[in-house]
TrEMBL record:
Official protein name in the record: ANTAR domain-containing protein
Ranges for region Disordered: 1-42
Record organism: Streptomyces liliiviolaceus
Composition-biased stretches (Polar residues): 26-36
GO molecular function: RNA binding
Length: 129
């Protein structure tokens, strides 16, 4: 069996009990880069490649922001990640935007006030666990 082939149905499951395949799920989800769902397998792969390229471009900024938070908040890598995710969820702000704002503080700029408040609250939640 190839690592890319799909396994057959599991014993004891009916068609209604089986989860939707990845192909079915990707057709129902809107596309994030072009604004429309992919129309075929080639377009779906192009869309995925575009999304992966964006993620690869943003990852270094996120990693640097994690390092800054680790130094400033005396926390672990995982805790710094949790802080970024927590602030993102509570402020309804994209994680990479928060990471860019944290990175900008290295050059003397302040963190925007709403993000300061959310970060302080996230640190408090982290410390009280």
């Amino acid at each position: 069996m190839s690592p890319f082939s799909r396994p057959g149905p599991r014993r004891g499951t009916t068609e209604q009990q089986r989860p939707a395949s990845h192909d079915q799920a990707s057709r129902s989800c809107p596309s994030h880069t072009s604004g429309r769902p992919p129309t075929g397998p080639v377009e779906a792969l192009r869309e995925e490649v575009a999304q992966l390229r964006i993620a690869m471009e943003r990852r270094p900024v996120i990693d640097m922001a994690r390092g800054i938070l680790m130094a400033r908040c005396s926390c672990t890598e995982d805790d710094a990640w949790e802080l970024l995710v927590d602030v993102s969820q509570h402020s309804n702000t994209k994680l990479h935007d928060i990471a860019e704002a944290v990175l900008a503080t290295v050059h003397g700029g302040p963190l925007p006030a709403p993000l300061q408040d959310h970060l302080a609250a996230a640190v408090t939640r982290l410390r009280t666990r």
